[in-house]
Amino acid sequence: MNYNIIKRPLITEKITNLREKYNRYGFEVSRDANKHQIKQAVETLFKVKVKEVTTMNVMGKIKRLGRNQGKRPDWKKAIVTLAKDQKIEMIEGI
């Protein structure tokens, strides 16, 4: 169940700055997952204590290739704030 909620960690410059300053981590999550499910999934998968979860829906961009036009899929992003002195070792090493 928890493996279906969290799809992948987000490694961007903005997320890296949030991780260093505020101990926040970013994940791409399932579109139908709510904050409670995301919190439970992160706590069980990474063995950490989650303080807060913020979610946002990201709309897919319109992309063109020549005269053909398509749309990237919509997805959901979660920013997870961990309690003090907690960190996710797997993501820290990247």
Structure description:
- The chain is of the alpha+beta class and 94 residues long.
- The chain is built from four helices and six strands, in the order αβαβαββββα.
- The chain has one domain: RRM (RNA recognition motif) domain (Alpha-Beta Plaits).
- The strands form two sheets. Strands 1-2-6-3 form a four-stranded antiparallel sheet.
- The longest helix has 12 residues.
Task: Summarize the model shown.
The protein is α+β, with helices and mostly antiparallel strands and 94 residues long. It contains 4 helices and 6 strands, in the order H-E-H-E-H-E-E-E-E-H. It is globular.
Give the count of helical stretches.
4
The CATH C-level class name: Alpha Beta
Question: Strand sequence of the main sheet, in spatial order?
Answer: 1-2-6-3
3D shape? globular
**The CATH superfamily title:** RRM (RNA recognition motif) domain
> Kindly state the mean pLDDT as a whole number?
93
Percentage of residues assigned to helices: 25-40%
Number of strands: 6
The N- and C-terminal alpha carbons lie at a distance of 26 Å
Radius of gyration, in angstroms, nearest whole number: 15 Å
Question: What is the subunit arrangement here?
Answer: single chain
CATH architecture: 2-Layer Sandwich
CATH fold field value: Alpha-Beta Plaits
The residue ranges in which pLDDT falls below 50 over 5 or more consecutive positions are none
Name the beta content range: 35-45%
Order of SSEs: HEHEHEEEEH
Task: Summarize the biggest pleated sheet.
Answer: 4 strands, antiparallel
Any idea how many domains?
1
SSE-based structural type: alpha+beta
